[in-house]
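Quick one, probably user error.
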């Protein structure tokens, strides 16, 4: 997975701030403190028109706008200072300074590298019974992922995959390509018109030449987001493709153009982010698709097996 950095909730340490207590391997995975974007999504139906304007500036424009003064953010969102403070309170913050502190933690976390986490990981995972303790942590992460992913969003993505008349393209970044390949392998064993796209520029360019309106493009992109993948996603959306983005809780810039987003918890006790949550979703989607396609799956899988046998003769 991309080096350490969906949708979730633990706070990281911004430069110059005091290091918070490091979570132990059996502490709950990241997800107990929501990101700003997740809070906004959860309260969306309760926001006034002016408050939704503020939310759009923070989510659709750039979250760094929240690091501006109340007056500057108000000017960009055409909202008064009092409206901004009411909006911040609805998100659960006691005041604008607390909101900005949480935002700085998030922005810093998206840029965090494995090297920055090396020391903390060594402290968390040291000692005996590491495998057992990591297994306990993994079980909590799996449960948390199932609770965090909205069922309607998950089902909507699966329904897109059911349409065997459309083409599906799957791409991942430098660290998530293996997850994209796994997903593509599972899908191609169940239905036709599925392809994996490498993340080099030549492959991306030629893939864009073939993308048509209503095609489905599935993008995996995790923190320290990959610029050519982000640009590819935008160009695919411009071509009329339906964009599905599977990302971390801080959300890749790709998510701004996506029709469907799975924002997943990825932080782990290791120096690298965990791939468990994305793999869980990938396997669950493949399992549900196999069930929903029924006879189509049986026929396609039979043809695949037959061809493999013929090639092996």
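Nope, works fine. Designed sequence:
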């Amino acid at each position: 997975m991309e080096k350490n950095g969906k949708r979730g909730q633990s706070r990281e340490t911004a430069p110059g701030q005091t290091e918070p207590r490091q979570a132990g391997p059996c502490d709950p995975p990241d997800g107990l403190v929501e990101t700003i974007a997740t809070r906004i999504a959860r309260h969306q139906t309760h926001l006034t028109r002016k408050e939704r304007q503020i939310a759009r500036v923070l989510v659709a424009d750039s979250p760094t706008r929240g690091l501006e003064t109340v007056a500057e953010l108000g000017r960009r969102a055409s909202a008064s200072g009092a409206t901004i403070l009411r909006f911040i309170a609805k998100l659960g913050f006691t005041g604008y300074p607390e909101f900005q502190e949480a935002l700085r933690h998030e922005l810093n976390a998206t840029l965090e590298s494995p090297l920055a986490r090396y020391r903390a990981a060594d402290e968390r995972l040291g000692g005996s019974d590491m495998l057992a303790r990591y297994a306990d942590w993994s079980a909590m992460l799996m449960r948390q992922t199932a609770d965090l992913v909205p069922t309607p969003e998950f089902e909507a993505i699966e329904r897109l995959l059911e349409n065997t008349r459309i083409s599906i393209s799957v791409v991942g970044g430098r660290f998530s390509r293996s997850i994209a390949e796994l997903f593509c392998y599972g899908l191609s064993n169940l239905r036709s018109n599925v392809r994996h796209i490498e993340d080099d520029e030549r492959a991306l360019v030629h893939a864009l030449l073939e993308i048509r309106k209503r095609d489905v493009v599935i993008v995996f992109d995790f923190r320290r987001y990959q610029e050519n993948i982000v640009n590819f996603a935008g160009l695919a959306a411009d071509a009329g493709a339906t964009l599905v983005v599977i990302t971390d809780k801080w959300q890749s810039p790709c998510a701004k153009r996506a029709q469907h987003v799975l924002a997943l918890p990825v932080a782990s006790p290791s120096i690298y982010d965990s791939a468990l949550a994305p793999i869980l979703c990938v396997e669950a989607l493949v399992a549900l698709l196999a069930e929903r396609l029924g006879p189509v799956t049986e026929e396609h899988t039979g043809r695949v097996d037959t061809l493999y046998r013929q090639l092996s003769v």
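The chain is about 55% helix and 10% strand.
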